[in-house]
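[recover] target loaded
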């Protein structure tokens, strides 16, 4: 009988996250998984979080367990405003809305800006979770290519003039999925175009503090001011289980986001906000970030070295300066989706790249996470992947008459 109920068109069109489906497989302990966007759990500051929980419940339990403001816990918002203002961005707590992870921030962006049939400009490839959040509101996408310096600026102006988008969505720092960082020059030009056509930029910045080499680049928010709406999260820099993120935006637009969030969930977990604030106010955050950066830098180096040593020469990949991911491109005609089953049979997993394209799938690409696994598991996993690719790509080329 339930199958005869009339669901919304949105419900029928909504697809499961490809990554979440793959993660069901990678939960098996024997699988070496490069698939998810998961930080390393052995680096979680469990003891410090435990102490923060006890302190909050003992000193502020009555408040931490109560309903709270839609905008979020004021001391946490002030902490974030002060931290984000260090690069020249002028923010107060009134510019910060606490969300249930940055994924809710993406959903709120969709709610606020997208009508069915309206256009959005995105990088090609782009973050799968953003596409999933935006798709619920029925947009059309105008895609812009990327190179080693980020979004192809020469295509952005044409994309704006052609589609009159509601916003431009980018992940400028250590992009998910490619690992590419947008150059300073590209950032300036992107802001200039957004100013010329008065189009907001959505700066999705979950990885900005995870730089392992190279020089920091000024944020789009610091360059574009109120024209830029920045999303952030504690998921990658502390732990994801508390589901705490934020939106940084002008006071004028923040009222719209606040109303949308009220209708969604009233407010983000009060207890989680109190606990994270208790943790960060003691100065733990910078110490913890340095700790995970040191570990992730080693793991990235191990993966890059293993790729050089074991992968066939016809396969290429990006060389990130930070973040969690790198991007692999197989020879034309190879299917990363088909090869995933063979990889899983070798007890190693990745995410096929085709899920990160808003329009045309490019199935000869894949994303690897270099942060979750230990250094030993990274090398072993890359050996296994190399074996799968060498055997199967060569077979496909021979069957196609390619020598």
């Amino acid at each position: 009988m339930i199958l005869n109920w009339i669901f919304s068109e949105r419900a029928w069109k909504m697809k499961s996250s490809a990554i979440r489906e793959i993660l069901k497989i990678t939960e098996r302990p024997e699988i070496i998984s490069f698939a998810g966007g998961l930080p390393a759990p052995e680096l979680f500051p469990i003891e410090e979080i435990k102490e923060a929980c006890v302190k909050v419940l003992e000193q502020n339990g009555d408040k931490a367990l109560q309903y709270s403001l839609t905008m979020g816990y004021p001391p946490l918002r002030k902490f974030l405003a002060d931290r984000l203002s260090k690069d020249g961005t002028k923010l107060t707590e009134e510019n910060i809305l606490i969300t249930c992870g940055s994924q809710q921030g993406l959903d709120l962006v969709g709610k606020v800006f997208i009508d069915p049939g309206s256009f959005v400009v995105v990088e090609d490839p782009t973050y799968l979770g953003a596409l999933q959040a935006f798709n619920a509101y029925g947009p059309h996408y105008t895609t812009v290519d990327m190179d080693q310096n980020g979004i192809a600026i020469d295509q952005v102006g044409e994309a704006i003039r052609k589609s009159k988008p509601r916003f431009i969505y980018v992940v400028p720092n250590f992009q998910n999925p490619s690992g590419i960082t947008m150059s300073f020059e590209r950032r300036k030009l992107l802001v200039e175009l957004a100013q010329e056509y008065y189009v907001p930029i959505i700066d999705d910045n979950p990885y900005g503090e995870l730089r392992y080499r190279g020089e920091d680049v000024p944020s789009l928010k610091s360059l574009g001011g109120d024209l830029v709406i920045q999303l952030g999260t504690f998921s990658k820099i502390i732990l994801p289980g508390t589901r705490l993120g934020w939106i940084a935006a002008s006071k004028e637009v923040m009222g719209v986001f606040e109303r949308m969030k009220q209708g969604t969930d009233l407010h983000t977990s009060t207890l989680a906000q109190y606990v994270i604030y208790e943790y960060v106010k003691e100065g733990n955050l910078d110490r913890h970030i340095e700790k995970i950066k040191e570990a992730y830098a080693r793991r990235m180096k191990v993966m890059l070295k293993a790729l050089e040593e074991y992968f066939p020469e016809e396969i290429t990949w990006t060389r990130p300066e930070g973040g969690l991911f790198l991007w692999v491109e197989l020879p034309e005609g190879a299917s990363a989706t088909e090869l995933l089953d063979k990889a899983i049979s070798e007890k190693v997993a990745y995410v096929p790249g085709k899920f990160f394209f808003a329009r045309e799938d490019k199935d000869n690409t894949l994303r690897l996470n270099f942060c979750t696994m230990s250094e030993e598991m990274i090398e072993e996993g890359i050996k296994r992947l190399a074996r799968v690719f060498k055997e199967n790509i060569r077979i496909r080329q021979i069957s196609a008459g390619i020598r």
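[recover] notes: The chain has a mean pLDDT of 93.
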